[in-house]
TrEMBL record:
One of its GO terms (molecular function) is G protein-coupled receptor activity. The keyword Cell division does not apply. This is G-protein coupled receptors family 1 profile domain-containing protein. The chain crosses the membrane at residues 7-26, 46-68, 80-103, 123-145, 183-206, 218-240. InterPro entries: GPCR_Rhodpsn, GPCR_Rhodpsn_7TM. One of its GO terms (cellular component) is plasma membrane. It comes from the Eukaryota. Residues 1-241 form the G-protein coupled receptors family 1 profile domain. Pfam families: 7tm_1. Keywords: G-protein coupled receptor, Membrane, Receptor, Transducer, Transmembrane, Transmembrane helix.
């Protein structure tokens, strides 16, 4: 068990919690969830908490992976501090949503946000845009760009020094280079997927509070599309992050082979 495994486990738990919220999201999009104190103060904000935990975990994974690869001789984070970090991720996600829990009130038409003024609402929307999209995207992009540059930098002098040596060493170098390129491609996929899947919802909420009347009408439609892309991003996380490490790829193959054998034995 490594710190990265703990991050992936936390990401998996968070993404699995979305299974419970997806039916509620679909129902809320098609109709409207019953406006009760419990629904308005807890259920709806908790949907966003799950997304926040997922985003903060992805960001922590990127920063930690960058630290480990760029400083390979530094001691690895202990399990205790990894547990503390995961706990802080959950705690900070709840803290970010506390204002939403406080101002969301039940009305006949559904749950509505009742802010002291529209300026407060706009300030909170802008803060959410920075906290759950802009800042994480910048950190993830910078971390993975630095990792990509470091992997390429490590490759070139090695290839030169081993060019005239034994074919076995050249084969090992070629295999390592191929794996490094695959890692860089996967890292690029992570950044692009995060940027594209999270963007529609973030832009929609910004337009809803800062846009014109026509833009606000468009934003209402975009919010529904943003929910779909955010859920799609969570569904893609196991596939994307599973390709990063060899043991996860082997685990996928082993598990799928086991399922196929079970299906064939029952048929």
């Amino acid at each position: 068990r490594t710190v990265n495994d703990m991050f992936i486990m936390n990401l998996a738990v968070t993404d699995l919690t979305l299974i419970f919220f997806i039916p509620l999201n679909i129902y809320d999009l098609l109709r409207t969830l019953p406006a009760t104190v419990f629904t308005c103060h807890f259920v709806k904000p908790l949907m966003t908490v799950s997304f926040l935990v997922s985003i903060f975990t992805l960001t922590s994974m990127a920063v930690y992976r960058c630290r480990v690869i760029l400083n390979p001789f530094r001691p690895e984070m202990k399990d205790f501090w990894a547990f503390i970090l995961v706990g802080l991720i959950w705690l900070s996600s709840f803290i970010v949503m506390v204002p939403m829990m406080v101002v969301t009130k039940p009305f006949k038409s559904g749950c509505k946000e009742k802010w002291p003024s529209f300026t407060h609402r706009k300030a909170y929307t802008a803060a959410l845009f920075v906290i759950q999209y802009l800042l994480p995207l910048m950190l993830i992009a910078v971390a993975y760009i630095r990792i990509g540059l470091d992997l390429n930098k490590a490759y070139f002098p090695t290839s030169f020094s081993f060019r005239t040596k034994h074919s076995e060493k050249q084969a090992n170098l070629k295999a390592r280079t191929k794996e490094n390129k695959q890692v860089v491609k996967t890292l690029a996929t992570i950044v692009i997927m995060f940027a594209l899947c999270m963007l529609p919802g973030q832009v929609a909420w910004m337009l809803l509070d800062f846009g014109s009347e026509k833009q606000k009408q468009t934003a209402v439609v975009c919010i529904k599309f943003g929910v779909i892309t955010s859920v799609f991003h969570s569904c893609m996380n196991p596939l994307i992050y599973g390709t990063l490490t060899r043991q996860f790829r082997r685990g996928y193959v082993k598990y799928l082979s086991y399922l196929l054998c079970c299906c064939q034995s029952h048929s």
